Amino acid sequence: MSGQRQSKRLDPMSTRNTDWFWDEAAEGRLSIQKCGNCGALHHPPRPVCPECHSTDRIPTPMSGRGTIYSLIRVSYPPPIGFDEPPIIALVELEEGGIRLITNIVDANLDEIANDAPVVVDFERTAKGKSLPVFRLAGKAGAA
Amino acid sequence: MTNPMTQCAIAGIGQTEFSTNSGRSELRVACDAILAALADAGLSAKDIDGIVTYTIDNNDEVSLNRALGIENVKYSVRLPLGGGGSAATIHHACAAIASGAASTVVIWRAMNERSEYRFGQPKEAPSGSRINDMTFTIWGIPYGLQFPGACSALGFQRYMYKYGVTNEDLGYLVVQQRAYAASNPNARFYGKPITLEDHQNSKWIAEPVLRLFDCCQETDGGVALIVTSRERARYLKGEHVRILGSAFSMPGNVEPLTSYYTEDPIIMREAEIVAGRLYQAAGVGPKDIDVALLYDAFTPEVVRQLEAFRFCGAGEALDFVKSGACAIDGELPLNTNGGLIGEAYIHGLNMVTEGVRQLRGQAANQREGAELVMFSSGNGAIILAKD
Questions:
Q1: B145 at interface of A, judged by CB pairs closer than 8 A
Q2: What are the tens digits of pLDDT across the range B17-29?
Q3: Cα of B120 to nearest chain A Cα, Å
Q4: Going from the N-terminus, what domains does chain B have, and what CATH number goes with each?
Q5: What distance in Å separates residue A35's CA from the closest CA in chain B?
Q6: How many structural domains is chain A composed of?
Q7: Distances (CA, A) of B15 to A28, A59, B273
Q8: What is the ipTM of this complex?
């Protein structure tokens, strides 16, 4: 992965339940919460496993591969932290049952299709936090 | 045995003007709307013993009581889910009255969301009551998903892909609603109908789903309702309408506009559950409804509710609209005040005033002989009837 390109993005809001997700991204990992007791994967993170109520949460690295569930390009009003209208997508991870809000980077809207395969990459916010983003699999620059 | 939840009525409705600048405080707007509703019902502030609103309203209950001289509150609730909870305020008012917890409940929404702040603009950080772990505030903001319209569009794009519909198909719905607004003197867009071409020329908000005209417009204004028992309503001044049925649902993982983590985000799961409960409570079905009022902050939400309430099959809503079914003499007149898109964005409560007016025979766009009107805000819904 090319990893950690600088951007003008806003930081994600910091909460005790979610900070670890972005900390993992800073290490170049796309990790999802796995229950230490029953093994269920859950996103977004939460303090308790909704299946078994265990509080043992294990950040678990994913393959970083997925497909595009849905996508839009948001142009007006201009989102804060972007020079160009960002392409926002829901990506389904290949591990199954997990969808992420993310961006598809280095691609135009007309070359992106629903169900297209994508791979994770990372970008830094203006203040240095790290975010998982995705690029089209097989496109130059992809892992 | 009679279900006591079906024995309540809306005894009064009130509103302010709908504008881009109310010129007065939000608390004053709330007071004006409530006083108008009390006058319509023939009641005074001293008669109120229940006060109900839903999140995002900035007026706090103590200030409201202080301003209006409301002295005997026995029941108060502020529902979750923002506008998604708007129809559910009536369900909870009915529950309070049916149980004896209160006898006369006022419900309000009053905001200066256009002149004091821009409710629908991009957010850098959540504020006020939206500070909890909401999907869009935590997971959307760094990716540019920073306002409600984009949230609606992101989920709905999958529907468009699955059923092969386009933004132009959504345009027929907007043209219909703006035609209603054009002949409604209360509406922000009174006298301003649009063509499909106008819709297609309006700027993209979130391509390929939403254009500007697919979105409600932030509005300054307030609406208030008075709910009491049918029995009591009969002796009051205003022409009451019966609340024939009401329902609420909060299924797991469901969130207004951002239900991205459910098994099938295309489906409005909360509304499907509400539909089942509502039709059972009211003892009627979708074919019996004379006028439908569906929360339309953005056009995709109307599509999802038309299908969830079984007015048409999955994937058929936009063909249904295109057929003319939603015109005043059609199979299902829809959002006959112009909706939130055409009349005003008062977070759902102005759909209830429209429902009452339809049953009183006083609507700007009157469905001849309307006897049953439905209003849904997704997580809640009501059926109103002549009594």
A1: yes
A2: 999 999 999 999 9
A3: 9
A4: 4-116+217-385 (3.40.47.10)
A5: 17
A6: 1
A7: 54, 51, 31
A8: 0.96
